[in-house]
Amino acid sequence: MPAEFFSAISNQKTPPVYKFFDGKAWKESTSGKTITVHSPIHGETVGELQSVTPGEIDHVMQSALTAQPAWEATPLNKRVSVTHLAADWIRHFEDYLTALLVREIGKTDSEARSEIKRTADLTDYFADEVQSIRGETLDSDNFPGYDKGRIAMVERVAYGAVVAIAPFNYPVNLAASKIVPALLMGNAVVFKPPTQGGISGVHLTRMFEKAGVPAGIISCVTGGGTDVGDYLASHPKVDVITFTGSSDTGAAIARKAGMKPLVFECGGNNPAVVLPDADMNLTAREIIKGGYQYAGQRCTAIKYVLGSQGVLDQLLPVVLTQMGESVKMGDPRSPETKLVGPVISVSAAGQFQQWIDESVKLGAKIVTGGSRKGNYMEPTILTGVTPDMPVVTHEVFGPLVSFISIKSMDEAVTIINDSMFGLQASVFTKDEGTGLTFAKQLNVGTVQINGSPQRGPDHFPFLGVKRSGLGVQGVRYSLEAMSRLKPVVINKPQ
Ligand code: NAP
Fold this sequence. Notes:
The protein is an alpha/beta fold. Helices cover 40% and strands 21% of the residues. The structure holds NADP nicotinamide-adenine-dinucleotide phosphate (NAP).
């Protein structure tokens, strides 16, 4: 069944050369160029992706804009049915997509499987939630100086053509979290998957096509971020860009996009603040899960721990003991591997190693880990870290947690609020009231009390401040972000 279902999307050779989807048909690019996707596990070729041309993007954009009005005019209940069908296909191919994700981005089976299941659930949830999005009417006489002469009927309408750009670390889930709300609100979607993760993105697109999304309404353009992504970001026919990726890429897209709505989820560099009364076992468990799951390649990973020297001295042995039981680096396909597989590329691992080495030269101490073989980085803990060291000023998208000793809670607030990132922060304390008071002082998207940073459940609002993002995601918020208000005002004759 998978071979037949997916036959159109590649040339079916080994390794396959995948096609791009122009909204109507699966095609090879006239560029004649492809990009090879290597598995981070062992470097073998997973497949090749088309590198589409600017002319092909122009064509896709035009098809999207031509098809969009009829899609927006399609009854919502039909858009909802198509979406539920797409969720059914994702669920149907859970095993196949899980195996693909493991190979393409180096997740363990359970991490990959949970991404696929969550994507199907999210897709269904969006389709249910959209049915409660309603307009409203407003009377004019609420405002001083006005009588009842006007009524505004405010409805939500689509923007038009949405460009959706997804990152490598959740190439299915974070693609669907953009595509689905945009489609449900009546937009056409031009999807640019990440290069690493692009094969999974191509498969996801096929699910929407097969679910019955009409011609022109979803397309999938593959190719390098700095050419295809860049061209899309500055394309004059794009109405909205919804993007997840690093803060640097987000800033580059924002500079080129011009005056259009941008919904960005960018880098995180999330702290965990540990108060003296914290439950050390629970705190250690959450730091390990937060720091090392998927080798630390999550925007919501814990990157540094803030506590008094006394607290850190108490916490560190507990973390090390628990790490011995619950963390083991290795091939993500091996049942012996726990949480830490490879990081996405040798060059990324090299960059992280450099920041670790520079921080050690500045006085940080390696407690465990600290080296790598190729793109397999040992789960690492550094102590004696200060906020100005490279491991804190950069987002180390790998398995590293840094311990920073602080003199007071005010110092913790200053360090967190002075950071250029502001996605999430965790506070560990047995006194939830103290946690709440502390949470109110932090300039971050979300504060977690007694839990590691996380995106889910997906109907909670999810956002980053400063260089961590623009706008708000989360089921209802994403649906709202993919539509705009349109008031029509009836002026009664006086
Ligand atoms: P990335 O390198 O910034 O790439 C993200 C996407 O942007 C990819 O599709 C990439 O394409 C594309 N791209 C690259 N350069 C571009 C350009 N100049 N113009 C337009 N598009 C461009 O990020 P990543 O390494 O894939 O993902 C990891 C980052 O994402 C981390 O910083 C992480 O914190 C962040 N992230 C944030 C969240 C959140 O919710 N806040 C969630 C997940 C990940 P190519 O792959 O072809 O280069």
